[in-house]
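Researcher: Next entry in the queue.
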Amino acid sequence: MHDPRRTLNFPSWFNARDLGGYPTSDGQTTRWRSILRADDPAQLTSEGLQTLADFGVATVVDLRWPEEIADSPNPIRDLGHIRYHNISLLSRTGARP
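Model: Structure for this entry, 97 residues:
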């Protein structure tokens, strides 16, 4: 069943979701408003960036490859008040996606 708390509304940023409420391996659940996930952050407008800051996001981890970031820069990394880290999650497969 879809939990309405999961879908977040950031202007121009699609597929943003709260990962709270999911069960953990120790029988607990993840906390609401502690881990968010979304697609390409380069889509964020200045209004979307302000909404993100107002939501209380303190750290952003960008899982894209450096080449993807070069093609589509993440505006969050230049804000200063939100910590930004780029950690490429996927290993290379020989062909660039």
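Model: The longest helix spans residues 46-55.
Researcher: Noted, moving on.
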